[in-house]
Each structure stands twice: as structure tokens, then as C-alpha cells.
Amino acid sequence: MPDTASEPVVLYVCTTCRAEGDGDGPRAGARLLAAIQAELEAGPAGALRVEPVECLSVCKRPCTVAVAGPGRWTYVYGDLDPGHSARTILDGIGFYAEAPDGIVPWRARPEAFRKGVVARIPPRGEGPAGR
Amino acid sequence: MPDTASEPVVLYVCTTCRAEGDGDGPRAGARLLAAIQAELEAGPAGALRVEPVECLSVCKRPCTVAVAGPGRWTYVYGDLDPGHSARTILDGIGFYAEAPDGIVPWRARPEAFRKGVVARIPPRGEGPAGR
Question: Which of A51, A72, A65, A49 shows the shortest CA–CA distance to A17?
Fold first, then answer.
């Protein structure tokens, strides 16, 4: 059985995602990452690890993140606003971290997650909790 | 480091995917699963486990599969033809299984995987091979 207490939930943020209007400055994905990191500095978020990723292959629906954790379904979300969704993403991941299998009841999911879901993948066989 | 020798690659097949024209019979996703299983009975496919999944949340791009393995990137593919893609999927997964990180060179990927990629997610921290 996975050690869900010590192994953190991981938030992958695509830093390559480019939004309409992106010029020579940081791309939308990099701005989203910075906004998430700023939110995390403002307050603790439990056992969460944030990892920049060069590409999540969801290029048509920027910005994009994925969230994964031991024994949990992995979710991929797109269509996220780099300027306004950092807090929403972290709130949604809070619910995810509280659900042993990562499946949050529909009503509790942020609207951005309901509309932006790109895919979900079951936990790989990691013991009974993963099935 | 994950034990990549004994832990198999897993192919998740969405059995809920419905294609245009699906009537009362088995849905497109269920037909794709049956076709994959028939291909596997016809010949061995190494350490591959096939798992039906009720929904991969890629409902707009049926049929859909995902492939995952220890220390490997997870890939999600859509737009797969239930009648003609079973052999292609298994061939593509053969290349995936041979790549330690699951990243197959672009030219070696089946066209259905190049065009149908929905998302990819990095391996979660499972040791050095997973980073």
C-alpha cells in the first residue's frame, strides 16, 4: 500500500504553454507557474510538490496542469487562465489531496476543473489502494 | 529505482467511449478492448497488462486509451478507430515498453499516436529513473 502520508501530491505545470498575445516576455505557462509559487509562499499547502514541465502535450488548450499522487487518479486540466487561476488550482488540489483515490465529488470541483478536464488516468497498480 | 523488469506496462482502454453510429450493441470503446484482447491472444506482447476503464474523461475524442509504466511518462491517446487500430496501438506500446522513460522518438511513433495524443504526464518521483 502506498505511503500516502509522506509522499506528496505533485502538481505539474506546463511552462511551454503559450497564450494568444504572448510576446517576448514569459509565456503564459511560466506566468501561471510563477503565480502558483507566489500563492504557495503566501500560505502553506500541505504536502504539495510543484514541478515545472516543458510540455504536457495539450498544446491546443493552454494553460495546462496535471496533478498526481500515490494511489490516486491522475488528472490533466487545460484552458486555465494564467492570471486568475492559481488560487483556484490550489483549492482544487486541496480537495484532491483529501480524497484517498483523488476523485473529488463533482459539486466540490472548481468550475475551472469541471470545464477544463482534459483526461484522467487510473492509479497504476501500487497495492490495494491503487486498484 | 523502480523494478522495470517485473512491473508491466499498463494499457488502459476506455470502454465507455461511444462513436457516431453506436446503437444498442457494444460501444466503440468496448469493441476496441475486444479487438486488442483478440490481438493479444494471437501473439505475445511482453509484460503488458490491459485494463478496461469506465472513463478516461476524453469523451470528445473517442476511442481513448492511456499507457503507463514504472519510471515512464504516461501518454493518453484519442481519436482511435475501434475497428482498425488494435494492432497499431500494440505496436506503439511495444516501442514504449522498450524506451526506459517511455519517450519514443517522433519518427518511430505510429501516426495514430502522433495525431491522437491528448496529454502526457511525467513519471512521479519513483527514484532516479522517474525524474
Answer: A65
Mutate to test the interface with B, among A56, A121, A126, A131 (most CBs of B within 10 A): A121
- Using a CB–CB cut-off of 8 Å, the residues of B that contact A are 7, 10, 12, 49, 51, 53, 55-58, 64, 66, 68-70, 74-76, 117-122, 124-125
**pLDDT tens digits, B93-124:** 999 999 999 999 999 999 999 999 999 999 98
Q: Do you find a cis peptide bond into B55, omega within 30 degrees of 0?
A: no
Average pLDDT over residues B33-51: 88
What is this structure's pTM? 0.90
pLDDT digits (tens, 9 = 90+) for B65-102: 999 999 999 999 999 999 999 999 999 999 999 999 99
Helix%, strand%, coil% for chain A, nearest 5 = 30, 20, 50
Task: Say which CATH number the domain at A71 has.
Answer: 3.40.30.10
d(CA A52, CA A113) in angstroms, rounded, equals 19
Report the distance separating Cα B64 and Cα B82, nearest Å: 9
Q: What residues of chain B lie within 8 A of the CB of A49, using their CB?
A: 125
Q: Judge whether B4 lies within some domain.
A: no
The verdict on a CB contact (< 8 Å) between B53 and A122 is yes
- In a domain, residue B2? The reply is no
Mean pLDDT of chain B: 89
Total structural domains within chain A: 1
